[in-house]
From TrEMBL:
<dbReference type="InterPro" id="IPR011607">
    <property type="entry name" value="MGS-like_dom"/>
</dbReference>
<dbReference type="Pfam" id="PF02142">
    <property type="entry name" value="MGS"/>
</dbReference>
<feature type="binding site">
    <location>
        <position position="13"/>
    </location>
    <ligand>
        <name>substrate</name>
    </ligand>
</feature>
<protein>
    <recommendedName>
        <fullName>Methylglyoxal synthase</fullName>
        <ecNumber>4.2.3.3</ecNumber>
    </recommendedName>
</protein>
<comment type="function">
    <text>Catalyzes the formation of methylglyoxal from dihydroxyacetone phosphate.</text>
</comment>
<dbReference type="InterPro" id="IPR004363">
    <property type="entry name" value="Methylgl_synth"/>
</dbReference>
<feature type="binding site">
    <location>
        <position position="9"/>
    </location>
    <ligand>
        <name>substrate</name>
    </ligand>
</feature>
<comment type="similarity">
    <text>Belongs to the methylglyoxal synthase family.</text>
</comment>
<dbReference type="GO" id="GO:0008929">
    <property type="term" value="F:methylglyoxal synthase activity"/>
</dbReference>
<feature type="active site" description="Proton donor/acceptor">
    <location>
        <position position="61"/>
    </location>
</feature>
<keyword id="KW-0456">Lyase</keyword>
<dbReference type="InterPro" id="IPR036914">
    <property type="entry name" value="MGS-like_dom_sf"/>
</dbReference>
<feature type="binding site">
    <location>
        <begin position="55"/>
        <end position="56"/>
    </location>
    <ligand>
        <name>substrate</name>
    </ligand>
</feature>
<feature type="domain" description="MGS-like">
    <location>
        <begin position="1"/>
        <end position="124"/>
    </location>
</feature>
<feature type="binding site">
    <location>
        <position position="88"/>
    </location>
    <ligand>
        <name>substrate</name>
    </ligand>
</feature>
<dbReference type="InterPro" id="IPR018148">
    <property type="entry name" value="Methylglyoxal_synth_AS"/>
</dbReference>
Length: 124
């Protein structure tokens, strides 16, 4: 089963929830992992099963990055807020870097995330 990581900064959480609701049927077939707050919002509002890690500022991006490094994540959907400085910017950069190191698809906006899910659906 494919594992998809879902992560969204605070001003992108509504967009993430809309994306998840839009693609709920497809996402229900995958193992979902997320940072704490993003995962909580998805569980509560979309009713999907999500394994949560720490919140991003507390190390959640690094936890997900370690799973990417261990080849345990197939797709990362990370709706970043490009307009707000984040206290854990180094962790965010590290997660994006490790995705590139391991050639793991990483979508940093909802349009790319939709294209990635469509591509995966076509292959199945
Ligand atoms: O900060 C984050 C990603 O960098 C996301 O963390 P939360 O999902 O806990 O808000």
């Amino acid at each position: 089963m494919k594992t998809i990581a879902l992560i969204a900064h605070d001003r992108k959480k509504e967009e993430m929830l809309n994306f998840v609701l839009e693609n709920k049927e497809q996402l229900a077939h995958y193992e979902l992992i997320a940072t704490a707050t993003t995962g909580k919002i998805i569980k509560e509002n979309a009713g999907l099963s999500v394994t949560t890690f720490l919140s991003g500022p507390l190390g959640g991006d690094q936890q997900i990055g370690s799973r990417v490094a261990c080849q345990k994540v197939d797709i990362v959907i990370f709706l970043r807020d490009p307009l707000t400085a984040q206290p854990h910017e180094p962790d965010i950069t590290a997660l994006l870097r490790i995705c590139d190191v391991h050639n793991i698809p990483v979508a940093t906006n909802a349009s790319t995330a939709r294209l990635v899910l469509q591509a995966v659906a076509k292959k199945e």
